[in-house]
Amino acid sequence: MRVGATIFNQNYGDWDRYEAEEQGKSVAKRAARSDREIFNEEIDIARIADDSGFDSVWTIEHHFTPYTMVTNPLQYLTYIAGITKHVDLGTMVTVLPWHNPVRVAEDVNMLDAFLGRDRNVICGVGRGLGRREYAGLGIDQNEARGRFDESLQVLTQLLATGQCEFDGEFYKIHGLRLRPQPERDLSVNLWCAGGTKETVEIIAKHGVRPLTIPTTSLDVALANMRRYAALRRDAGHAPSHTKLALWTYVAETTSEARAGAERHMVEYANSALRHYELLGTHLKNIKGYESYAAQSDALRKDPTLFTHGFYNSHPWGTPAQTIARATELAQAFGTDEIMFIFKYGAMPMAVAEKSMRLFAKEVLPALKELNPKPLVAEDPAGIATAGNTTTRATA
Known about the structure:
Blueprint: E1 2-7, H1 15-22, H2 35-52, E2 56-59, H3 73-83, E3 88-95, H4 101-115, E4 121-126, H5 131-136, H6 144-161, E5 163-167, E6 172-177, E7 190-193, H7 197-206, E8 209-212, H8 218-234, E9 242-247, E10 249-250, H9 254-275, H10 290-301, H11 304-307, H12 309-313, E11 316-317, H13 319-333, E12 335-341, H14 349-368
């Protein structure tokens, strides 16, 4: 199994100031800690990964809030390509409704040209959830599903052949050919986040393989992936592995790991709750986001289901505990690659680096020996080969 490291670039300490400013209150104009300072220090995650035997480095796309501050993951990864030698590079994700899919294909193709034959660019894409982001980019979120569906078809054509013919509602493309001319089929490295049943339906129909980023909970994510496996089977496609993002914190003792994991994983979950406005009621009025609206109803009754969900279910602990939990999840999700997040919330870089280096020394070799089977659909008796549970007991 492949193992990657993910760069998030969160400025968690700025949330109170940001939200007060958003409400029109008088506050300092700049964050107490510079966003660019965070950028500069977290680049070291890529360097550590490249030097420590990781297979890949990933980053994500978000806009306008302190949640994460990578506004163009392919641009960021082009810089990372220049300071690394071994790792593949991946997006988790580029949000397709926010971009012209032709430009996404061009950027992937350019990065592939820079990386050469021995390294890959893995293009993870998704539909996006944040209301602030859709509004700030001037895109009607009610159009997200349609834009995503068409963009995925355009992108798949261009990555596979370098050419595109498409006649849709949002995109009409004829006789298009990429330059520089692609030298290989890049569509084999196309993966898509499936956070809702609506997105899962689209990617299963098109045979795009699933990227699991548990925005809410691992239980919900696993249910979506099982639905994906059934829809993929019904569409005539063979079973597929998944790629899975997980938060981790590794320390020499359980007590040290518990303290760090609980503090910073809860901080991360709090930041996601605030960025996505998951306690709001707006999602029920947005086409294609009804499943998130139902989750928001539950979270308003008990937000701790979310804020402690990462801590209660993701792999943390001593190296042995981390190996055990990550192995369980890899097998449950039928994954061929886990992308670990080492720095999140208000975690200092020195703390994240210590955890990451211990992970690289004692956890990474064991996980790379794993070979989980692809996720398969349940048979008529309701039995799946890919595991049963994702909930962990708090150590």
